[in-house]
Design goal:
Blueprint lengths: L1 E7 L3 H12 L6 E8 L5 H11 L3 E6 L4 H11 L4 E4 L5 E2 L3 H12 L3 E9 L4 E4 L5 E3 L1 H9 L8 E4 L15 H13 L1 E13 L11 H19 L2 H4 L2 H21 L10 H14 L10 H9 L5 H24 L3
Parallel strand pairs: 1-2, 1-4, 2-3, 6-10
Antiparallel strand pairs: 4-9, 5-10, 6-7, 6-9, 8-10
Helix pairs in contact: 5-9, 6-7, 7-9, 9-11, 9-12
Length: about 325
């Protein structure tokens, strides 16, 4: 049996599509755990309605504790041999779990991962991958350098999650968790086809630039960097170490891009100085030669935790975003 864990919070316009796509799977031996995370409005009632008409649906109503706590509750209650996650504003193809389960059974791996179709109001974009099986260090290398770090386009043997849970009260919890799961499993297999539909929308947590979100993102990337780089197996693998180093540089620059939009009263200057100190200690003045010009420029300014550097980086980022939008309009793909 597959246990599908769905945290639910403020997604009333999208919830029916999400749940219907799970209950309509060609693989029928499912339990669907809907975790109503204290959501206002009709979300809780919608969940209860599905439980009345389909015995595979189990509903849990909790106080609002966040996405990680909801997923952890789902993991504790899951009875299946396999576990999957679906975000409640997304949806999946009818045969996603049948294909992912077959892939695990055929390859003997502990995790299978599929491609993703990113959905927005304006366009769709597919993110596929090679049809491949990765074992040991290759599995971590593939996850870090080539595959998504999200938990929701994957199917796991439940044993992968033994002694591991999501960090509570933090956003970007997938970054902090998925590499530990792959280390536990030591294997993963890929299905190229995009079977998971990821909806991007204004107002979602990851598209909101608050001080807490900026801090959570940086610390998630930093903790992964520190954990893996402390192991010679990964620190001496140039592809892994180079990617982790560049990703942490990008997270530092991302902080400088958006902190200007956070009011001075809400800024955590202790954190900003820590990021700046890390950048000065670990990176050359203008970044590394193989980095993009925008990343090298950002690394230069993120050495200085002051209002001028915040404003310049914010302005440069807005110019970059605007120039990309003009390019898309003039030269559509």
């Amino acid at each position: 049996m597959i246990s599908v864990i769905v945290p639910v919070y403020k997604v009333e316009p999208y919830l029916h599509q999400c749940i219907d796509s799970i209950l309509g799977q060609t693989y029928r031996d499912l339990e669907v755990l809907l975790i109503d995370d204290g959501s206002p409005g009709r979300c809780g009632g919608i969940c209860d309605g599905y439980a009345r008409i389909d015995p595979r649906v189990k509903v849990f109503h909790t106080e609002n504790e966040g996405l990680s706590a909801a997923r952890n509750l789902g993991l504790r209650e899951a009875k299946g041999e396999y576990v999957g996650f679906v975000d409640s504003d997304d949806w999946i193809e009818p045969d996603m779990y049948e294909i992912l389960l077959r892939r695990i059974e055929e390859t003997g791996t502990s995790i299978s991962v599929c491609g993703v179709r990113r959905e927005s109001q304006k366009k769709q974009k597919d993110y596929s991958m090679n049809d491949h099986v990765y074992i040991g260090t290759d599995a971590i290398r593939a996850l870090i350098c080539r595959l998504s770090t999200c938990v929701w386009n994957k199917l796991y043997r439940k044993t992968c999650w033994e002694s591991i849970c999501f960090p509570v009260n933090h956003t970007y919890e997938d970054i902090s968790t998925i590499y530990r799961i792959v280390l536990n499993s030591k294997s993963l297999s890929c299905v190229p086809k995009p079977l998971y539909h990821y909806r991007t929308r204004e107002g979602s947590i990851i598209h909101t630039h608050t001080m807490n979100n900026l801090m959570d993102y940086w610390y998630s990337v930093y903790d992964r960097y520190s954990f893996l780089m402390s192991n010679p197996e990964f620190s001496e693998d140039h592809e892994i170490s180079d990617y982790l180093e560049m990703d942490l540089a990008s997270a530092s620059v991302n902080t400088w891009k958006w902190v200007f939009r956070v009011s001075r009263e809400q800024r955590d200057y202790v954190f900003l100085h820590r990021v700046s100190d890390f950048v000065r200690k670990h990176y050359p003045l203008s970044g590394k030669k193989n980095w993009s010009l925008s990343l090298r420029t950002g690394i230069f300014f993120s050495r200085y935790p002051n209002e001028a550097s915040f404003a310049i980086m914010y302005a440069l980022n807005r110019i970059y975003i605007f120039s990309k939008s003009i390019t898309v309009k003039l030269f559509p793909s």
